Each structure stands twice: as C-alpha cells, then as structure tokens.
Amino acid sequence: MAKLLSCVLGPRLYKIYRERDSERAPSSVPGTPTSVTNPHSSSWDTYYQPRALEKHADSILALASVFWSISYYSSPFAFFYLYRKGYLSLSKVVPFSHYAGTLLLLLAGVACLRGIGRWTNPQYRQFITILEATHRNHSAENKRQLANYNFDFRSWPVDFHWEEPSSRKESRGGPSRWGVALLRPEPLHRGTADTFLNRVKKLPCQITSYLVAHTLGRRMLYPGSVYLLQKALMPVLLQGQARLVEECHGRRAKLLACDGNEIDTMFVDRRGTAEPQGQKLVICCEGNAGFYEVGCVSTPLEAGYSVLGWNHPGFAGSTGVPFPQNEANAMDVVVQFAIHRLGFQPQDIILYAWSIGGFTATWAAMSYPDISAVILDASFDDLVPLALKVMPDSWRGLVTRTVRQHLNLNNAEQLCRYQGPVLLIRRTRDEIITTTVPEDIMSNRGNDLLLKLLQHRYPRVMAEEGLRVVRQWLEASSQLEEASIYSRWEVEEDWCLSVLRSYQAEHGPEFPWSVGEDMSADGRRQLALFLAQKHLNNFEATHCTPLPAQNFQMPWHL
C-alpha cells in the first residue's frame, strides 16, 4: 500500500537513460528487481513507456493543467466580464463552487488511476524505489542510479546548498536569506527631501510600477518563464537534455539558492580529455527565452571546454521568478557550486553570456573578481532604452520607474566593477537590442556597452578625439570599412602594446588607467582604436543565430 501511495504522489517520468551492457552494474537499492535493472534491450536510452491507464490519465491531468494556466492568465478579464454580467452574486457563486468541487474530486480520482497504472509498471516501481532511497541516503551510488532517469525536477533531491561552503557559515559578509548584494539605482530626483508627504504622493506610482513589473513586465522581459511556452517546448527540452546526458556525459544537479529557489544545472566535465581547454570551466548564462538544454552551451562544448549550464528561476526545472535579485541569487549559488563542489578555481572559470544573460554574468564578474574572463554575446548596457523602444512614448515615465525599481538590468555599471579581460560580440544584424532598425548598427546597445567599459578603464584615451574615432569605427558596416578606418589613422599595434605594457609595469593593472594623459591627440586616437578592436568582435548574424565554435575566443589581455 505504501508503494501504491508513492506511485500516486510520485513525479512524472519522462525518459530512462540506459548504460551499455558492458558498463552495467547490479542495483544496490533493496527491492529493485534484477530483471528490470538489466533489460534485454541493448539501446543506451529509451523513452519511458507508460501503461494505457497511466498514459490516458496523465493526458487528462496535463490538459487540466493547461486549462488552469490559461484561466490564470485570463482571470482579470474573466472576473471583469462576470462582474458586468452579474454572475458574482452569492446565488450564482455557490452552485459554481459545487461544480468546481466536483471537478476537483474527479481530477483526484484520475490521479489515483494514474498511480494504479504506475504501480502495475515495473519500470516505474523501480524508479520510485531508487528515488525514495536517494532521498533517504544521498550516497554516490544512489545518485548514479537516479541520474539514469529524467523526471519532474521538483522531486529531484538537492545536491548543493548555498550555505554548504564553510567560508559562508563563518563569514558575515556573504549573502543572507534576503539575497546577495546588488547595485542600487540612484534616485530619479536628487535633492528631494524624503518626507512622509512625498512618500504618500509617490505611493500610487510605486503601486502601479509594482503591478506592471509583476504582471506584464516580467513576462515580456522573460517569456521563457511562461508556463504555456515551456509546455510547448517540452519535447525539444527533453531531446536537448538527452543529448547532453548521452553524448556529452552531462551530470544534472539541483542547487538551493539563498532565497529558497531551486536551480536546475547541467555540468559537462572535459578535464579528463587531452584538450587543454577542458581544464577551463565555462559558466553559460542564457537569454530571456533560452534554456541550457538548447541554448548557448553548445558553443563552448564544441570548442572543447568544460561547461556548466543553468536555467533562470522559473525556467524548466528551476523554481521562482526571474527578477534581478533572484537572478543574482541563482548565479551566486552556481558559482559557489563550481568552486566548492566541482573543484574549479576562480582563475579557471570563464563567464559566457548571451543577450539578457549578460546581467548575471556581469554580476558574477563584479562579485567574484578573480574570475578568469567574461565573454558577452549580443548583450546590452542598460535595459531602459530597450524597454522604451517597445512601449508607447506616453509611458516613458512609468517604464523608466518600473525598470529602475524592479527590473534594473544595469550590465554596464556592473561590468565596470570587473578588472579582468572582457570580450564583447556584436551581432551586425541584431533585431532585438537595436533601438531603431537592425540595419542601423549604431543603435545597437552593444556599442554603448563597449564605450562605457572603455571610458571607465581608459578615461584619458577615450576623451573627445578617442571617443569620436571609436564611434566612426563602430559605425562601419563591413570588415572592409573597419579596416579602412583602422589604416586611415595608421594604428601601430606594437607602439600601442609598448605604451600599455609600460604603464602597467609602472602603475599596476588596476583600472581606471590614466594612460594617454600627456599624449598627443593622434596617439590617443591610435590607442582608442586599438583598444576597441581588442574588446569587440563583430559577428555577421541576427540575434538568435547560434555562435559558431570558431568565433568563441578568449578575451585579449596584456
């Protein structure tokens, strides 16, 4: 009876990964049938085949889940309609509650039938036995056996806790349960007295901003967190996860962040290969509709690096919602996991981000200054200009206030706090992070990210002359035009390198540098162009085109 109850309440099983016959080991979990552990099939993996009763009951419950999601998103309109029609009176609500209760009882009965179907399936009984054993005892053997199954990630046991590193328990400066530290935006109106009356006046605007951010804003900014989209992508995500596990020998893990969110991760270890880049770990930060199963992890994987992918809060197996604080909390536990559990030193970790993933990558670079390098692909400097692009001009004040207070993705500000090597990849036909049209390359916010970084690190070089010539170089629409501008100013790379190395040897590597202070305007132009070319690579593609492995290069450093 206990096993039947476990089958009723157990998670949905999607796929069973099978090892080759020569690599199989007998099960160490008591009560696991040997005939099920070693099936006669020689294939490495199989989709789980539910019995007819489980299959049909699961379909009904899945359909009910979709209807519930649709009802949730349309509930404000439905309540307004019912109110106008007078259906919210007590005489109408009571019969409706009876219908709803009956429907819930029917769905509970369907769930019990599904459990009976699972109970009659030896594959599911074996799975639930291993899952229960792993929850009781987190031994390496139990985890190895559980890794052969792909199931609802909510039931996966936690592999790493944010407080697990001993340094976190002893230090008072680490993250609290409220979250890690973020850079806070400056007040919109400086010098205004923060009196009680002013707070009361601001309250309606603050409430409106909160409602916009937590309803429309968050879903527009992170469409991958919408349940219906995830449901539609489920077959693709399962296929991508199978590829990572089967072909790349990936290891899945659940991390518990300081805010209680559970973060879904996948680690591919290349340290045992002959390729030297396998000793480096690339932590990948996905876009606003990206998942590690089908996202940018493929680029460093093809290049031979060890890779750690993770999903945003609210994406696929990760719980929570993707607000900036939750994003930073998730990134913090991912980096801690890489250092304290996977055994990589910060000097061997590279942060690679695509699009909106630049926020978490720049936060990690700012918070972990010993990180080896940062690569930002198709990323931007600040969210406000991009948000204003897609919203009515009359909403400018509301949009700016909402972003600054609740969705403040200040990538450039965070990146300027990092002292290490940085490479920016600009898509020349990017249709997402341009503020006008894709053909207008100067409206690409990647340009502003580069300019802010160079102006912070080399303020004397990026004075009037240097800034002007870099803008000309950024405006070039082809490699031929870029080379023409570069040669027009007769940039001597050896001279630029010698100037920078001499300054570094005399003053140290810490930014900002005062190099160029006593230099001619021509010299500043040369240095500005040289530095711009070293920090930005163009990729002739649109925003969502996968980056080829040959374009995945380490950033320049002296």
TrEMBL record:
One of its GO terms (cellular component) is endomembrane system. It is a multi-pass membrane protein. Keywords: Hydrolase, Lipid metabolism, Membrane, Transmembrane, Transmembrane helix. It holds the Pfam family ABHD16_N. One of its GO terms (molecular function) is monoacylglycerol lipase activity. InterPro entries: AB_hydrolase_1, AB_hydrolase_fold, ABHD16_N. It is found in: Membrane. It catalyses: Hydrolyzes glycerol monoesters of long-chain fatty acids. One of its GO terms (biological process) is phosphatidylserine catabolic process. Its EC number is 3.1.1.23. Gene3D superfamilies: alpha/beta hydrolase. The chain crosses the membrane at residues 60-84, 96-116. Residues 3-152 form the Phosphatidylserine Lipase ABHD16 N-terminal domain. Residues 281-408 form the AB hydrolase-1 domain. Belongs to the AB hydrolase superfamily. ABHD16 family. Phosphatidylserine (PS) lipase that mediates the hydrolysis of phosphatidylserine to generate lysophosphatidylserine (LPS). LPS constitutes a class of signaling lipids that regulates immunological and neurological processes. Has no activity towards diacylglycerol, triacylglycerol or lysophosphatidylserine lipase. Also has monoacylglycerol lipase activity, with preference for 1-(9Z,12Z-octadecadienoyl)-glycerol (1-LG) and 2-glyceryl-15-deoxy-Delta(12,14)-prostaglandin J2 (15d-PGJ(2)-G). This is Phosphatidylserine lipase ABHD16A.
